[in-house]
């Protein structure tokens, strides 16, 4: 029985699945299984997975008709045998020491159910472009999860099995296996899961130092999907609010402001000035807390959105090129 | 002539008319329990120290907090020869999830406080499992005694006949009880002949009334001194609690032969009994669906034992605890 299971949902990811599996197979911590969940791919993702499975007996393939990312992760969890279960989407990579760090963390800290790390952001070509997620690691409260999502992305967390089981449920219409991630979400399924975990269990959520995940972001078409992303975030809030209305009354405004600020920053990245201005203004009218808690980041987001509107994206491109040249 | 029975002194710092007070009333008045021991209840203040007392066994029903910890440590030191038991009426996994931002620190408090006692009594098996799982209480000092109140008046009630129409919600009007979700659920039900009867008072009263405003089917009754009379007017009892160490209302509903729809958190999964309809998703939609299903089945709960042995089991468990702790020498020889 492998000590760790890593679930790799894949849907038409033939361009990146190979490097994801390479990164997982070369983890320093070797007592693992890699569960590739083929979520109805129509490209040659499954052939790539099969080639890895032929060379490495620790790679297994689970097939399912397309159910989306949450559904693929749930199928992977159902197939997982490990005492700890991690996730790595088929376009992301893990640094060689990532699994070892989380295994050591979960062994040393019996109260921790979800262990995560920071991430380096990589572009479509798989290259870091000077951005990272460097979240708070200790003293993480559920309010912090709601506002700042320290877990960061779906390839960052490694769970203790009992902790995942504590939030599993079986919807009435589901006949095959439990849900851990809510398959009715096509976006915000990550934060919905982490927040529900915080609101319904007494497991600690804690990070380990280092940027141990390489998280790929899609730079094109970002702002087009922001409204849909915001809508799914709002649906998550509506879904979870009955669990503790007092918690939401207290933190919802600030969390929404942070969410809008995040969307503003993405709009800035894709050079969409009007969208960026709209979002940062909505953020600040939702709550002033981001200004008080993170004045620099909030202030620069506001400033960048204004500069973008008046000067175009040349200054931002210049800064980015300078950073790229330095890095 | 002196009373040969050992003296069991129960310390309590909660004077509100809730579950703890009612269980202590039961301990004080139960004739079965009086055979083994004299049970006395001593109210103490939440502020300041604890008094020096004389007893053969001391039982804490106190609320554990960082503020009360020094008083507890000092109390333990001053009663080093007397067995000390703590009954945990409040804390559960669900409580911790929704009320404790820094959980590791809270677990340190509980572990430190529980270590002062010779025995820690959980009020339900799920709560005991949580205490053990989190390493808060050593397994050899942990035991479960589920609380009771006098259920005779509830057992005397006839099972409701005919269609199930009246849903009852009984308890403190506090976010713990989840009555907000229940009100939303009932509001969304189309049946005009059903009604929701909310019994209790508390800080959320105004907010809950505002939530129910405009729906004449939802009625607030305030606190009642006669819980069996309240139960007699209900067909179904709803318990959408967000956390619940045990849930006495469920026991009363079962004794009264009333079907239960419950959230199933913490101790409620035990107290609501095997026939309860459990709503595992805390949402108005899930509750509306469950209530609809339950109302359609009518108010007959099926064959129910009405918790016939609850009081006897409670008395026997305390008798055994007393025998274990208050006569350690004989036990030692016997072992």
From TrEMBL, chain A:
Keywords: Transferase. The keyword Lyase does not apply. It comes from the Bacteria. The keyword Transferase applies. SUPFAM superfamilies: Nucleotide-diphospho-sugar transferases. Residues 5-166 form the Glycosyltransferase 2-like domain. GO terms for molecular function: transferase activity. PANTHER family: GLYCOSYLTRANSFERASE, GLYCOSYLTRANSFERASE 2-LIKE DOMAIN-CONTAINING PROTEIN. This is Glucosyl transferase. It comes from Thioclava dalianensis. The lineage of its organism: Bacteria, Pseudomonadati, Pseudomonadota, Alphaproteobacteria, Rhodobacterales.
Automatic annotation (TrEMBL), chain B:
Residues 52-152 form the Glycosyltransferase subfamily 4-like N-terminal domain. The keyword Secreted does not apply. GO terms for molecular function: glycosyltransferase activity. It comes from the Bacteria. Keywords: Glycosyltransferase, Transferase. InterPro entries: Glyco_trans_4-like_N. CDD domains: GT4_GT28_WabH-like (cd03811). Pfam families: Glyco_trans_1_4, Glyco_transf_4. Gene3D superfamilies: Glycogen Phosphorylase B. The keyword Glycosyltransferase applies. This is Glycosyl transferase.
């Amino acid at each position: 029985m492998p000590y760790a299971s890593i679930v790799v949902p894949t849907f038409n990811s033939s361009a990146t699945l190979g490097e994801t599996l390479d990164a997982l197979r070369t983890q320093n911590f070797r007592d693992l299984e890699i569960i590739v969940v083929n979520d109805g791919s129509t490209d040659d993702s499954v052939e790539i997975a099969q080639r890895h499975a032929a060379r490495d007996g620790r790679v297994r393939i689970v097939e399912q008709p397309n159910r989306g990312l949450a559904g693929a992760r749930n199928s992977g969890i159902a197939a997982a045998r490990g005492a700890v279960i991690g996730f790595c989407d088929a376009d992301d990579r893990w640094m060689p020491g990532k699994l070892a760090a989380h295994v050591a963390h979960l062994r040393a800290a019996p109260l921790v159910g979800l262990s995560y790390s920071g991430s380096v952001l990589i572009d479509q070509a798989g290259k870091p472009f000077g951005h990272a997620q460097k979240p708070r690691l200790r003293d993480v409260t559920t309010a912090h999860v709601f506002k700042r999502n320290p877990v960061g992305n779906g390839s960052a967390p490694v769970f203790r099995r009992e902790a995942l089981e504590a939030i599993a449920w079986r919807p009435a219409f589901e006949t095959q296996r439990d849900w851990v991630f809510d398959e009715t979400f096509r976006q915000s399924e990550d934060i919905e899961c982490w927040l529900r975990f915080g609101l319904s269990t007494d497991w600690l959520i804690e990070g380990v130092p280092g940027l141990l995940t390489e998280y790929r972001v899609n730079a094109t078409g970002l702002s087009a999907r922001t409204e849909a992303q915001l809508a799914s975030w709002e649906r998550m809030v509506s879904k979870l609010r009955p669990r503790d209305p007092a918690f939401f009354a207290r933190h919802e405004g600030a969390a929404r402001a942070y969410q809008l600020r995040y969307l503003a920053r993405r709009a800035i990245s894709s050079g969409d000035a009007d969208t960026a201005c709209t979002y940062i203004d909505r953020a600040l009218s939702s709550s002033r807390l981001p200004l008080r808690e993170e004045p620099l980041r909030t202030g620069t987001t506001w400033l960048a959105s204004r500069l973008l509107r008046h000067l175009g994206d040349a200054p931002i491109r210049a800064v980015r090129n300078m950073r790229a040249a330095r890095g | 002539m002196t009373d040969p029975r050992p003296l069991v002194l129960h310390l309590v710092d909660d004077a509100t008319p809730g579950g703890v007070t009612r269980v202590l009333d039961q301990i004080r008045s139960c004739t079965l329990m009086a055979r083994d021991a004299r049970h006395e209840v001593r109210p103490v203040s939440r502020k300041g120290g604890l008094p020096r007392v004389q007893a053969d066994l001391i039982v804490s029903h106190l609320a554990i907090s960082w503020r009360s910890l020094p008083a507890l440590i000092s109390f333990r030191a001053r009663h080093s020869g007397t067995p000390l038991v703590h009954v945990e009426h409040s804390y559960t996994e669900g409580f911790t999830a929704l009320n404790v931002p820094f959980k590791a620190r809270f677990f340190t408090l509980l572990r430190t406080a529980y270590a002062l006692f010779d025995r820690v009594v959980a009020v339900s098996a799920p709560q005991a499992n949580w205490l053990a799982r989190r390493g808060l209480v050593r397994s050899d000092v942990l035991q479960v005694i589920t609380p009771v109140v006098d259920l005779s008046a509830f057992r005397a009630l006839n099972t409701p006949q005919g269609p199930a129409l009246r849903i009852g919600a009984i308890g403190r009007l506090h976010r713990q009880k989840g009555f907000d979700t229940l009100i939303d659920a009932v509001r969304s039900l189309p049946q005009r002949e059903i009604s929701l009867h909310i019994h209790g008072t508390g800080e959320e009263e105004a907010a809950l009334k505002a939530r129910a405003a405009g729906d004449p089917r939802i009625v607030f009754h305030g606190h009642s001194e006669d819980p069996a009379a309240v139960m007699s007017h209900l067909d179904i009892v709803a318990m959408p609690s967000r956390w619940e160490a045990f849930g006495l209302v469920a026991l009363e509903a079962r004794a009264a032969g009333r079907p239960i729809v419950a959230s199933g958190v913490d101790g409620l999964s035990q107290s609501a009994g095997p026939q309860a309809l459990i709503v595992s998703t805390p949402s108005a939609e899930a509750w509306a669906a469950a209530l609809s299903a339950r109302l359609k089945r009518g108010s007959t709960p099926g064959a129910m034992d009405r918790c016939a042995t609850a009081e006897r089991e409670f008395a026997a468990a305390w008798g055994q605890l007393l025998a274990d702790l208050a006569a350690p020498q004989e036990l030692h020889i016997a072992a």
